[in-house]
Request: fold
Amino acid sequence: MTQDLGQNYYKELIDLKDVKGIETQIQSLLDVAIESVSDLEKWLKDEHNLMIQIKEATTGHLVDFYRNTEDPEIKSTYLHDQQVIQPLLMKYEAKLNEKVCESPYLNQLDEKRYGLMRRVRESKVKLFREENIPLMVREQELCTKYSEIMGGLTVEWDGEEKPFPYIQSQLDHLDRAIREKAYHAMMSAHRQIKSDMDAIMDELVQLRHQIALNAGFENYRDYMFVEKNREYSVQDCYDFHENVEKHIIPAWNRLAEVFKSKLGVDTYRPWDNTAKLMKNPPYSEVSTLMDGVSEMLGKTDPYFADRFDYMRENGLLDLGDRKGKSPGGFCTSLPVSGDTFVFANFSPSFFSLIALIHEMGHAVNGYLQFSENGPTEDYQQRMEVAELYSHGMELLLLDKLDRFYPEEEDFKSAQREELRRAFTMLYGPLSGDLFQHWMYTNPTHTAKERDEKYFEIAKRYGLSPVDTSGLEAEVGMSWAGTLHYFQVPFYNIEYSISMLGSLQLLENYQKNPEQAVESFKRGASADYNQSIAAIYEETGVDFDFSEQAVKRMGEFLEKVIQDIN
Reply:
């Protein structure tokens, strides 16, 4: 069972309903005279202390809403944050950034400690336009609407109304007929909300394009590269797309033949492209899931289990499926409390087990950061780094999946499925990245063209070995089930980049488990003001997605799968 939804797991040290009071506190920061380097450092600390109080409250409200999208009071609080507090913060953030960037003492700050902060603030000043504030508020309203629609999505299954995640879990079933039935049920549910999804995405594309134009960019893609402060170029991304298509997809096609043979099927259909070789779901109750994951984490490193057990005891996990709960899963930090919260809406399945392990990689990273460096600033949280530790945790626990799959053949199948997932992380998010490059550099596209482009890209990458005949429309519209496209645009390629680093971590673990785990912990607690490459280096891996790196790690991954016999 999960904990009581009313349990308080975050601190509200500031009343977000008191808009005037918040504005007064921020204005007082703007009124402070900064007359020395030490003044500037004190000012940055004071600003930080105020902003983490606001962030903890808004994060708590967001999680409350994701946990129960149907509660009107929770929704009202969340919408107040989105419609009143966020615009206020956008307005004043620009002024705060200008104050810092215009200070003659900024360049006298220690580069190692403050260099990343300076670069991020300078880019924010470059991007800010007051006319974009209402556009961004509307953007958040549309994202909220998406969560409400998906959170309320149910499917009739054998005469009963079931939450959508339950149907997704049936794609793991050993019986091919049940998998096919589940696939068509999911597509039918998507079809019912497709017009709403198209309308939301059509408006989001136009809003985001206008935001980019207002900020002086040709398109939203180019705007986002600056907004994300990426340490690589648009061309680097296109090269990565091509390298994966050249080296990973042929290996994926070979691997698909192995899975097709094990299934005993002549054609590999979309409902066969799932984790379906284990006899049963890994658990039936959430408590059983938590017991097992705690044990797996403890066998890897006692600190990992300690953090998980602490979160379990303190209401920082919400893992079960229920109606009204937003889809997906995530880990988020509570900077005042020094805690992390893991949210997941999955029915019992192999994927839900791996998703929890994945999010615990984020959680451990968060706790190590807090203990070593204090609350991580937003500007420090680069997803190429964060996802290294979530994917890395999955692979460090690969040899402990027998906790849920004690029979030898099931254990081997589970390991193969996790490694198959590693393959999907090399091409799936990357193809989603390419899809978004197309969407936002072609902002006048129609809904029909969007579906056609999604199908085309899917067939080039993950669905290359899959027979999709007669299902072109279903595949084409399936982008609507991916919340990243709606809520966190251009957060995709980071998964694929970090998976290359995580596979290096697995390679190191196979040679020396203890050393690899220590490297994981060292990197996860490293100073996040460093470059991505420096943090990867502290983890014992290379930040490298060149053709040579893609080819080498693809060959390594294929061999590891072949060695499980």
